[in-house]
Design a protein that fits this description.
Elements: E1 3-9, E2 18-24, H1 33-46, E3 69-70, E4 73-74, E5 95-99, E6 108-110, E7 113-114, H2 117-126, H3 146-156, H4 163-167, H5 174-185, H6 194-207, H7 218-222, H8 230-245
Helix pairs in contact: 2-5, 2-6, 3-5, 5-6, 5-8, 6-8
Length: about 250
């Protein structure tokens, strides 16, 4: 198929950006979206032009690195990661707009690449469990009730791609942060830092400049791993409880 691409090009964080138009031919419907971009870049390199910079890593829908806004939707028209979006979702002759995540907390590095290190700092502030060093403990040393294990597993599926931020009209990171908080706070191993974790992670989230949550639900709709919206409610309850008790 033949496609018309409008791709955001920006040389560096301080340079102005603009949409550039390209035409790519002989695109197979079985290609992934990233393979289509690879084809475009091969043509640009052969023509002596600068290839389009975009993030990618595993290309298996696991790492969340392939963060793109496609025709206004985070990761594109299907509820999956960009690397798992195939060109059969488009038609011959389609015009496709490709942009980076749009959020003040995710500044553009180059073209379609954004700096998502704000997520790393949120995790560093409390997304961990304190454990003694040494040999690994016996797997069944601490019993975990099945409902708690199910909740923890559901929220541990978050891959930190940032689609929730890109989809939110406020650029909020509440779904990401709540997934990490609920995951660890659901487990007995996470009890020692339960209150400090939610206070510190929410504080860091606000410090990073993410917007506030107004419950539009766009974050959960865009999440490729289906993190539920009620995760935010769970985190808010944890936060209020911890704030009342103080540190």
């Amino acid at each position: 198929m033949r496609l018309n691409l409008r791709v955001w090009r920006q040389q560096n964080p301080d340079a102005p950006g603009a949409m550039a138009t390209y035409q790519v031919d002989n695109i197979s419907s079985d290609m992934s979206f990233l393979e289509m971009l690879d084809t475009l870049n091969e043509e640009l390199i052969l023509a002596g032009d600068d290839p389009v910079a975009f993030d990618h890593d595993c290309r298996e829908g696991i790492c969340g690195a392939c963060s793109l806004v496609i025709n206004g939707d985070a990761h594109g028209p299907e509820r999956t990661t960009t690397c798992q979006l195939h060109m059969r979702s488009f038609k011959n002759g389609d015009t496709i707009d490709v942009e980076p995540w749009r959020a003040s907390a995710f500044p553009v590095v180059k073209d379609l690449v954004v700096d998502r290190s704000a997520f790393d700092r949120i995790i560093q502030s409390g997304g961990y469990i304190t454990a003694p060093t040494g040999a690994a403990p016996e797997a069944h040393a601490t019993a975990v009730p099945k409902p708690a294990a199910d909740t923890a597993f559901e929220h541990a599926e978050c891959i930190g791609c940032g689609a929730c931020v890109a989809a939110c009209p406020n650029g909020s990171a509440m779904l990401f942060t709540s997934a990490k908080v609920v995951h660890l706070n659901s487990l007995p191993q996470g009890a020692p830092e339960r209150e400090s974790r939610v206070l510190d992670m929410v504080e860091q989230m606000d410090t990073e400049g993410f917007g506030g949550c107004t419950n539009t639900g766009a974050c959960a709709t865009a999440c490729p791993k289906g993190i539920p919206l009620f995760s935010i409610t769970k985190m808010n309850r944890e936060f209020v409880r911890a704030a009342r008790r103080g540190r």
